Amino acid sequence: MKTTKVFLFTAIFVLFACNRSSDSYNGLTTNMGELYRLSRAKTRSISPENFTGEKGKGGMATLEEGSASRAARELGQGWKVNPYVRIQPGETFVMAEIKGPGAINHIWMTPAGNYRLSIFRFYWDNETEPSVEVPVGDFFASGWGNGNEPEIRSLAVCVNPRSGFNSYWQMPFRKKCRITMENLDSREMVLYYQIDYSLTRIKKDAGYFHAQFRRVNPLPYKQDYTIIDDIRGRGQYVGTYLSHGAYSPGWWGEGEIKFFLDGDTDYPTICGTGEEDYFCGSYGFEMRWDEERIMDVYTPFSSLYTGFYFVDDPANQIHLSRVGEYRWHITDPVRFNKNLRVTIQSLGWKSEGRYLPLQDDLSSVAFWYQTEPHNPFPDLPSPDDLIIVNAKPIDHLGKGKTVSLATEPNSKYVSNPGSLTDGLLGTKKISGGFWMRFKGDDLEAVVDMDTVQLVKEIRVNFLSSPSSWIFKPVEFEILVSTNGKEYQSVYITENIIEPDDNKDQIIEFGRSFDNLNVRYIKIVAKNTGTCPEWHPGSGGKAWLLIDEVIIN
Question: What is the model's pLDDT at position 30?
Fold first, then answer.
């Protein structure tokens, strides 16, 4: 009888313990080995189709309020009426505001615009200073901008063709989560996004996710690049993304990374053996010279924890090499109890086997978890210091002069009139240039030279790319004036768009002059309006793309 009671008590205790174990699982450590485990966590998701993530509230946008209402006009509510948002210049849009406790599990987005001028921020609980403040492309290890996205197949971040950005960093919070996107650009930003999260209990030992961006361009001579400094508190460093733009020929990746832990001063506790070594490559990522492309090329790779890629676009670039590297410390986090500083050197080679300190363009994102509060972040660089200049700047008399437009360009692309005299030339790669775009419309622009002065040359660049519905102007004219009222035509040309004129090319119009004294220069370009009959897009609106007005 006594034995039976003991057995029954033991069975009840085991059953109770099992139930408690099931109840204690919060559902956040999901992997193939634990996917069968059940929890009381609630799955929710925020997107433009459900801004609050509320249960049963998705896909309710009406045609009157939806961003894609025109496309859904024949179908109505429930048919992909509001899949994206538009963020105006200077606007900060609140992507998510969630009451905890819970954790962000996955973020997907595809942003349109200048990635460096789209600032992604996260605020945990009731903090007023962000724990994440990073340009959106760099957050997803794609720091070289729109059109240069790599394919990344890692555990923490995936980038799928073309700009399918995915984050799998687990981000717990206890009281509240707030996520915003700020548009620093002068043009509108279009954003598709989805934030998947769990509402569940958070364990006491859970740290808060942090990410911080830095850029130095160029790096001062013989100075280490600081990836992160002045982290204070207890936590662990979990990842690095580095964009490296080399200005010097040859190899650039000999510099050592250093982790200064818990009071280290002159010398670190962890010292790597080289840049490509830290990112888990070797022998310069198989760096070699490509005679056909006239550039150094490498062998890219993407794995669960590390990866490397290079941007293969030599036309008009100011960097001799442009690469991106990531390393996620998922199985080897760098733990700290008081503080942390991380630096990396920038080194190449010179004669006689000697190291060469480089003055390259370096940008980085540091990823870590820590207890709160955290030290405030340094200010982001100014927009001018954030952006990546893809084209070689040129000097001319009109550089920086005021431009006024009589016709408005397409607002989704470059819309600042000053871009026509900024000294930066567009390239054949449309997304990597500085092209102002007119869809079906003509162009009329006036450059004010400030004073009447001698001008010997006026030339203007247009892009022709018929496969992208982009055509040269069918008529182009230059007019000049000394008072801005009476104009004299000094150059005019008419163009016929032929079926065999189908290659991508930059076309220059203009001429040289003798003793031309002017203050105002008017540029008039007539769009073909619609694609020609022989074109696959016949009848559709044609694009006219202009970049620099070059005056000498």
Answer: 87
